[in-house]
């Protein structure tokens, strides 16, 4: 088991000795590795270099305060947890410390092994959870921005909260204009909106629902939409995460017998094949790259699900095109 590296930032050496004795509990003497720093400048340098797992910061640091140090560390993107220590309890300092981003606030007079180590454990656990959330958010944003498929985040009324470049291009619009419209304004048939909303309310998701879109330039486009509900970060609103799959129309009534027309049909099918398979392959390629260096088992399950769904999409497109080719 790796030792937890702790830096105590306190200008009083006696407090360092007391803290060291508290953490030197005979049953857990090898769990914690405590170091000491007695001035502001050395402290911020150590925090910026991320040398420790957690920081215990005294409120009084000469001409500075522990809150000054916490504030500078947060503004400098120091992500390791900081626990503020003070000689006497003060609700105002407590609230200000937590507002600035402290993991906890402890009174020195009440410190013992159980209280201090519990605060350290909880701070590290919370830090790891936040790290996993940030990692997932960053990976989702990369997938969101790089995806060749249109992806949009809307509310139940269709108002757009976010849309990737592929969505803006597919709808022939601009980000500013899209922010002032709803996704439903692009639906050609009003009954599609009603069907979509009813399905989302009843099942919480929609899978491969086909519909016609009228883009901002007036073009009619065929696509399928898959959506699911996600509660917003603060739990105030339901957000719809939707992905659109472009379905290029194949006009059967334009086909005429003859060698030349057959060549045109083959070329058209080949073009459809390229367009329909390229996007899922891009998503599969991204997911496999993420799998190479990702130790998160739950995240890997999400990536494998992306691969599985896109493989199903390729299989569906291939089967459809084979059937169309047989009719030629």
UniProtKB/TrEMBL annotation:
Modified residues (4-aspartylphosphate): 58
Domain Response regulatory span(s) in chain numbering: 5-123
CDD domains per record: PAS, REC
Gene Ontology molecular function terms on file: phosphorelay response regulator activity; transcription cis-regulatory region binding
SUPFAM superfamilies per UniProt: CheY-like (SSF52172), PYP-like sensor domain (PAS domain) (SSF55785)
Domain of life: Bacteria
GO biological process, one term: regulation of DNA-templated transcription
Keyword annotations from UniProtKB, A to Z: DNA-binding, Phosphoprotein, Transcription, Transcription regulation, Two-component regulatory system
Any one of the GO CC terms: protein-DNA complex
Residue stretches making up the PAS domain: 136-202
PANTHER family found in the cross-reference section: REGULATOR OF RPOS (PTHR48111), TWO-COMPONENT RESPONSE REGULATOR ORR33 (PTHR48111:SF1)
The name this protein goes by in its record: Response regulator
């Amino acid at each position: 088991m790796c030792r937890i590296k702790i830096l105590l930032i306190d200008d009083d050496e006696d407090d360092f000795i007391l803290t060291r004795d508290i953490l030197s509990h005979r049953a857990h003497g090898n769990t914690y590795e405590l170091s000491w720093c007695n001035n502001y400048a050395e402290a911020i340098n150590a925090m910026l270099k991320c040398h420790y797992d957690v920081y215990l910061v005294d409120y009084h640091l000469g001409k500075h305060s522990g809150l000054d140090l916490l504030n500078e560390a947060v503004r400098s993107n120091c992500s390791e947890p900081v626990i503020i220590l003070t000689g006497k309890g003060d609700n105002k300092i407590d609230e200000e410390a937590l507002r600035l981003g402290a993991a906890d606030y402890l009174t020195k007079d009440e410190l013992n092994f159980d209280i201090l180590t519990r605060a350290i454990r909880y701070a590290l656990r919370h830090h790891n959870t936040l790290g996993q959330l940030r990692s997932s958010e960053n990976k989702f944003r990369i997938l969101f921005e790089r995806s060749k498929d249109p992806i949009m985040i809307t509310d139940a009324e269709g108002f757009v909260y976010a849309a990737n470049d592929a969505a803006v291009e597919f709808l022939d619009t601009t980000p500013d204009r899209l922010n002032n419209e709803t996704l439903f304004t692009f639906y050609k048939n009003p009954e599609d909106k009603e069907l979509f909303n009813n399905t989302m309310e009843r099942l919480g998701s929609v899978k491969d629902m086909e519909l016609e879109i009228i883009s901002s330039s007036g073009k009619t486009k065929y696509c399928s939409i898959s959506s699911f509900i996600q509660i917003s970060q603060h739990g105030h609103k339901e957000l719809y995460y939707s992905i659109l799959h472009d379905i290029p129309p194949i006009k059967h009534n334009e086909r005429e017998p003859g060698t030349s027309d057959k060549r045109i049909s083959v070329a058209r099918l080949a073009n459809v094949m390229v367009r329909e398979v390229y996007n899922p392959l891009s998503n599969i390629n991204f997911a496999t790259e993420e799998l190479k260096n990702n130790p998160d088992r739950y995240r890997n399950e999400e990536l494998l699900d992306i691969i599985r769904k896109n493989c199903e999409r390729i299989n569906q497109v291939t089967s459809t095109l084979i059937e169309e080719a047989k009719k030629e």
